[in-house]
Amino acid sequence: MFLDYYKLRDQPFGVTPDPRYLYFSPGHREALASLFYGIETGRGFLSLIAEPGMGKTTLLFQLLQRWKGYVHSAFLFQTQCDSRELVRYLLDDLGLKSDGEDIVRMHSELNDFLYRETKAGRRVVVFIDESQNLSDTVLETVRLLSDFEAPDKKLLQIILAGQPELEQRLSRRGLAQLRQRIAIQARLEALPANEVIRYIGHRLEVAGYEGTELFTPGALGLIAERSRGIPRLINNLCFNVLSLGCARQESRIDSELVKEAARDLSMDIPVPHRAMVQAQKQHRPDRGLRRLAQSSYCWIRERLNRRRLFQTTTVSLLLCSVAIYMGARGGTRMMLQHDAGKPNSRIAVSTTARLLSGTEPDATKAPNDSAIAVSKPDALTESAGSFVYVVQQNDTLRDLCISMLGRYDSKVLSHIRELNPDLKDPDELEAGQEIRLPVSAAN
């Protein structure tokens, strides 16, 4: 066991979701803030898309923890089911009795429950994990659940979490009604190399490591490359590297140890080379290039939307350039159909991100979603780059900052004091108290 050899208190790269080791990258914090805002404003349908191993479920549990005491929630994992089974699972998780046979009666039970909870001032939120496994028929049933509403508000909010296949399925014409109802689409991207280094350092620090730098820079770079920035793969690779280092009595992990551990885990082939090999296996010589062009187009568009680096005119010019290139390869029709099928919820995502970062949107550039673009709670306009959080039972400012901002130090505390001039004692928070938290930690 390498714990004693490297003087670690416990396993830094375990597979169990220990909250002490929770590390939120800027992308995770942005996704959490977007979903939090969506629930707070009653948007109805939200979605969270991420590759396997990116921490979707952990983030959803954190979101649920922040609303504990103020929402009645159901968490559904059984996605290999039909419509009747899904509704029965939902009722069971909400604590409602059901015979599981009469779908009409189950809907009536759910409707009565939602009205009771709304009258009591509680929100009802349903989390459906691994939603990409739901059949089209069941997804349509999920859409119909959103019809439970009062004249002035939604009675039920639903968060669909899944892998990228979910986004692809929602782009189908037959699911257009469901896609249009999704007001906020959050996404978890793979960690960049610098975040992988911080992730590893954070876990080693929590595990009690106090020695010199355990990984060489070359080893860290190789871990970032072979894991593709996916936390689960980082954990697996680091665990095997430390085990191998202990067996060889190595006091420091170098790139050679990482290469050997990666081979043992079949992670030794760099990702670009895998893509090249796969493309060469296609029957048509231009198919791999066309897919690469389409992938590049999607990657550029997503980065521009999330990072907000350019104005709409610049984005349009860039996307047109890509469209011309794909047209030369015969892919223009496919790309335009793909883009035309995107819902106005994309505008809502960008708008939400701008609201949370304090950047005012231009309502003239969101013709089909202008209400979302210009209407937002006053609480979000008081201070740029911050949002209001309702304190839950047993919350501490330190825990909130670590989980949402990734750190808690004098600079963060000073920033919070600026946002909350009436906050008398940061160490004494009361349940139900409203405090303003920054979306990201100041440098």
List keywords for this structure.
443 residues, alpha/beta, Helicase, Ruva Protein, domain 3, Rossmann fold, 5-stranded parallel β-sheet, two-stranded antiparallel sheet
List the helices and strands and how they pair.
Layout: H1 2-5, H2 26-40, E1 45-50, H3 56-66, E2 71-76, H4 83-93, H5 103-119, E3 123-128, H6 136-145, E4 149-150, E5 153-154, E6 157-162, H7 164-170, H8 176-181, E7 182-188, H9 193-206, H10 217-227, H11 231-247, H12 255-264, H13 271-280, H14 287-307, H15 312-328, H16 332-340, H17 345-357, H18 370-374, E8 386-390, H19 397-405, H20 410-419, E9 434-438
Parallel strand pairs: 1-6, 1-7, 2-3, 3-6
Antiparallel strand pairs: 4-5, 8-9
Regarding quaternary structure, how should these chains be classified? single chain
Level-2 CATH architecture of the largest domain:
3-Layer(aba) Sandwich
Helix/strand order, N-terminal first: HHEHEHHEHEEEHHEHHHHHHHHHHEHHE
End-to-end Cα distance, whole Å, is 38 Å
CATH C-level category of the largest domain: Alpha Beta
Estimate nothing, just give the exact number of structural domains: 4
Number of helices: 20
Helix content: 40-55%
Largest sheet: 5 strands, parallel
Order of strands, widest sheet: 2-3-6-1-7
- Please tell me what the overall shape is: globular
Low-confidence stretches: 272-384
What's the rounded overall pLDDT mean?
75
Strand content: 5-15%
CATH names the topology of the largest domain as: Rossmann fold
Structural class: alpha/beta
